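Running low. Got one?
___
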Amino acid sequence: MNDFSIQKESEETNYEINLEDYTNLDDRAHDLSYQLVSTVNITPTINVWMRDTFGDGWNGGRITLTDSDTGNLVFSSDGPINSNGQNWIKSEDIDVGTCNITWVGGKYPQEIHCFIATTEYNFDVNATTPPDTNASSGVLYSKNSTIYMPDATISVPNIDILDTVTIDGITIAGSILTLNTNEFSNESFLVQATNILNNEVTNTANVQVLEPDP
C-alpha cells in the first residue's frame, strides 16, 4: 500500500475511501484483506537450539534457564538423546525477559552445541555449527565445540510489531474504509493489507487526516 491522506471538508463528517486505490497493482492481483494496525512494543519469545556433534546425546550435560527476576525455572534440558543423532533439536517457545543460564558439563562438553535465539530467528537446521552471538540478528547466546561451559545472563531485547486494533470512528468492510470524524480524534492511523492466501503482509500505509483548508 501507499501512504495517503484524507482531507476534511467543512460540514462533512463521513468519508469513504476505497483502499484498493492506494494498493500496488501487483498486490491487487491477489485476494487481500485490510486491517487497522498499531505499533506495539513486546518482548519476543526465545528458543534453545541443541545438538551433539558425536550423535550420542550429551552424556550428563544439562542446560538450565531461570528467570533473573523471579528465580523461577523456565527451561531445563539434557540435550538431544541418542535417537536424535547429530540433528538439531529446538525447545518450545520460552517467554522470559532476562534469564540466567547455568550448565552441567557432562562427560564430553566439547561435543555440546547450543545456542539461544529469538523465535523469529531463521536458522539453517543443516548447519553443523551454532551461529555466533549477535543480538541484532536474534542470537543471544552461543556455545560451540569447546570444553568451556560458560554460565551467562541474557536479556531479550524488546521489538516493535504491528498488531491489529480497533479505532473509534473507523470501520473497514472489504476494501472500503469509512471514517467518521465526529468519533475519530487523531491525526493519523495505519492500514495494513494482507494476502488472504498465504497470510503475508503486503505493505502498511500511514494515513494522515488533514484539517479543512481555511
Helices lie at 25-28. Residues 25-28 form the longest helix (4 residues). The chain has two domains: 4-40+160-210, 46-157. The chain has one helix and 16 strands.
